Amino acid sequence: MTFRRLLFALALSFAVLLPSACVGAPEDADADADIGSAAAYPVEVSSCGITSTVDSPPSSAITMNQGATEVALALGVEERLAGTAYLDDAVPEKWRSAYETVPVLADQYPDHETILAAEPDFVYASYISAFDAEAAGDRATLHELGVATYVSPFGCGAEAPEPDVTFDSVWQEIADVAAVFGVPERAERIREEQADQLAALERESVGEGIEVFWFDSGDKTALAGAGGGGPQLILDAIGATNVFADVEGGWADVSWEDVVAADPEVIVLADAAWSTAEDKIAMLRQDEVLSQLDAVRHERFVTIPFSESTPGVRLVDGATSVAEQIRALDLR
Questions:
Q1: With helix as H, strand as E and coil as C, how does the chain read?
Q2: Which of the four pLDDT bands, split at 50, 70 and 90, describes residue 39?
Q3: Mean pLDDT of the chain
Q4: pLDDT at 19 over 70
Q5: Which domains does the chain have, with CATH numbers?
Q6: Which residue range or ranges hold the Fe/B12 periplasmic-binding domain (predicted)?
Q7: Are the C-beta atoms of 190 and 174 separated by less than 8 Å?
Q8: What percent of the chain lies above the pLDDT cut of 70?
């Protein structure tokens, strides 16, 4: 028994009613010749003020939150995942088959015992909340058990300053994770392909001169896409104007009075399991005042999955989708 497995066994002996089966890596951990060689390791990767050292390519990693899971899928390392958890919406068709090969450990966050039962060597999450005591547990504790960790730099919360949301900073997260798995060339390929998509969107500028309200959720107030997050990046990419671009942060609660005063031409709706686009449209139509907004009266709604509005590997897909839907509205 390896030292790491011995540590897991000791930790599990104190857990209550743990499942007896463990989800492991493929039998041939080196089956994919594209995975980095031993010469590329150890790899040090820092996130949210904590540095992890990875001595070899992970063979039984866990991803938590949709953003983290989809970065792993985009990098093609699904065979090296021992489990995943916590979706906001559907995994897109291009990765669905790969996703379905990965065990789902919990609908939301698995607890510490469930994490240990999967014997991971790397845990990657989009939000620091994944490492709360009632979830995976403290990162330092996992490190003591030989489990490296990484949190998206956009999900540190109060743990550390978050970087400005740019496509470069999004690509840097993908590059960090690719380095851990030993597939840096795959991250570079993603960067190049997405940069080409963005260049094409910029040339077309389908949103030029169009004022947009990005509506995430809320009823008493509206959680709007503000001037410093994924929605702003998307609207900038297509040349559209965010009516709340002067509000700080990625997201901000704004009053409905301010929405009415802005009277946007188009409303972009984030579609998530916890706040569907359909529910938001129904609320806008039924409200005596909001129903008179120009965008509502003329049914100028654009809908994208929530996961295409947050900093991550699908953000460029979100820009492409918004551009296609605005083009279909034929506002020019």
A1: CCHHHHHHHHHHCCCCCCCCCCCCCCCCCCCCCCCCCHHHCCEEEEECCEEEEECCCCCCEEEECHHHHHHHHHCCCHHHEEEEECCCCCCCHHHHHHHCCCCEEECCCCCHHHHHHCCCCEEEECCHHHHCCCCCCCHHHHHHCCCEEEECHHHCHHHCCCCCCCHHHHHHHHHHHHHHHCCHHHHHHHHHHHHHHHHHHHHHCCCCCCEEEEEEECCCCEEEECCCCHHHHHHHHHCCEECCCCCCCCEEEECHHHHHHHCCCEEEEEEECCECHHHHHHHHHHCCCHHHCHHHHCCCEEEEEHHHCCCCCCHHHHHHHHHHHHHHHCCC
A2: low
A3: 90
A4: no
A5: 3-192 (3.40.50.1980), 205-329 (3.40.50.1980)
A6: 60-332
A7: yes
A8: 88
- The single residue listed with the structure tokens 């060597």 is 121
> What digits encode the pLDDT tens for the residues 227-268?
999 999 999 999 999 999 999 999 999 999 999 999 999 999
Say if residue 18's pLDDT is above 70.
no
Span 192-219, mean pLDDT? 97
pLDDT at 1 over 50: no
Strands 241-242, 211-217: pairing is parallel
Give the torsion sign (CA, 241, 244, 248, 253): negative
